[in-house]
Amino acid sequence: MKILIADDEVLSRRLLEKTLERAGYEVVSAENGKQALEALSRPDAPRLALLDWIMPELDGLAVCRAVRRRTDQAYAYLVLLTSKGSKEDTVLGLEAGADDYLIKPFNTEELRARLRVGERILLLEDRLVEARENMRFRATHDPLTSLLNRGAVLDLLARELHRSHRENKSTAILLGDVDHFKDVNDTYGHGIGDQVLIEIATRLVACVRSYDFVGRYGGEEFLVVLNSCDPAYGPSRAEEIRKSVSGRPILTAKGPLRLTASFGVLQSSEWGQRSLEELLHAVDTALYEAKAAGRDCLRVAKPPAQEAVAALAPQLMRQRH
Amino acid sequence: MHRSRDNSATVVWNLPELLSRVDNDQELLADLLTIFKEEFPRNLQALEAAVAGADLQKTAALSHTLKGMLSNLACTRAAAAVSRLESLASAGNGKSLLDALEQFKQETARLVPEIEAYMAGVHG
Is the peptide bond before A105 cis (omega within 30 degrees of 0)? Predict the structure, then answer.
């Protein structure tokens, strides 16, 4: 494990370096507080640090305070190592953000034992962060396909629609439904149905850009949000996605299955200031039209003619000026 | 305890404690003593200049550095003497600095020769 030693006194630093290397640590050294803070701010920063209190540039307390102010890095376990030994100093050091406090000259066994405490705290911290991230992922993702779940993708869509309206851009909404999916479940069982959904989800994600969103909207329905795209992009990308589903069979435990999907497509710039619910209703209607047209195709949702003109007005004005 | 060569009772440095601190690593011990031999005279000279110039801030900082160095080498009495100098300077008490410096110099007078003799004994 990496550990930072910050001490301006060369003999003390050498003693610490050797003691900690012998204990199996990868030692990073700093000669003053500024260097220490820089080392603790790097992406691969040590998460254990031994900081001398009195140092040039920045003292140990200032380093502790600066590290505790930041919120964008993993927790660092900070030990103040100093000859200041009064209760007031101890309180001051801990209040500044130090996790522990050791009086110089240090006892080697005590130093190692206290650092092991630090390692245990960091391990616990890592486990808590991992558990929180897992919970966050479970709260926002579909457990079968690992796509965004309905709530999460709709939240992101709502945010994206606001942004594209504010920035005069367009968002494409694609609602897809696997054709005759019930037959797959009825014929091959739900396990094979699950394999199909996982594979289709993988193909959808592979077809979009890293900043687009793909979510599982319902049983065999998927919602794709294409951010900041021109009006022609939505339908053409939807066609690519459709082909990615029907273009090659899906390999399952019961053999390869040929499946298709139908899509409704909507380009937000053509719909003015409609609500999210209205847009979803419109794209859902377009999907039904695709189904009615024989499946394995897409239909673009178009607003009533008057609204289309109104939605285009700002663009026409901009072109005129 | 490692005692001075004239066999007086004054403890110049506590070698067993220092050996324990370095896990009996003779190479590290030699490293530390070499650093001390180079750093101590320079720091002492700067401290004398700071006291002579009544620079309390610098006196406190240099005393602190020397205190850390001497404590690490288990030179307890010298560390205590320089700690008094640091306290006086930190408290803004410039009057007693010269006396405190003199006491500190007396404590450390035999230190460098003692350490040199030890190093010569080990490597000789």
Answer: yes
pLDDT digits (tens, 9 = 90+) for B17-68: 999 889 899 999 999 999 999 999 999 999 999 999 999 999 999 999 999 9
Given the residues A133, A220, A221, A240, select the one marked as catalytic.
A220
Phi–psi pair at B116, nearest 5 degrees: -60, -40
Q: Does domain A150-320 have CATH number 3.30.70.270?
A: yes
A119 at interface of B, judged by CB pairs closer than 8 A = no
The one-letter amino acid at B123: H
Q: Check B72 against A108: CB less than 8 A apart.
A: no
Residue with tokens 């937000």, as numbered in its chain:
A268
Is this prediction's ipTM beyond 0.85? no
- Interchain pair B68, A83: CB under 8 A: yes
**Domain B2-118 CATH class label:** mainly alpha
Residue A270 to residue A169: CA distance in whole angstroms? 11
pLDDT at residue B10 in the model: 53
| Residue bearing tokens 């377009």 | A286
pTM greater than 0.80 (yes/no): no
Domains of chain B: which residue ranges? 2-118
CATH 3.20.20.30 fits A2-139, yes or no: no
- Residue ranges in chain A whose pLDDT is less than 70: 306-321
Indicate yes or no: CB of B72 within 8 angstroms of CB of A54. no
Is A220 considered catalytic here? yes
